[in-house]
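Running this now, will post back.
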Amino acid sequence: MAAAKKINLEKSLGDLEGLVEELESGDLPLETAMKKFEEGIKLTRGCQAALKEAEQKVQILLQSTGGEELEDFVVDED
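Update: finished.
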């Protein structure tokens, strides 16, 4: 299995935020908007993979030290 390309999560999130702003402006030609959307999907997948890898590392560290299991993070929407 090939090693996944390491991404800078903060930079990728910033780039993704910029793409969203551009797309939300509605000022892009359709072809450009589609390319930006595709780029955003790739960034999203890269970010998800990086977060999953970080979660797995934390889980391994907790298990190796006899720590507690990870719990799902719940966001209060108040």
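The CA atoms of residues 50 and 58 lie 12 Å apart. More later if anyone needs it.
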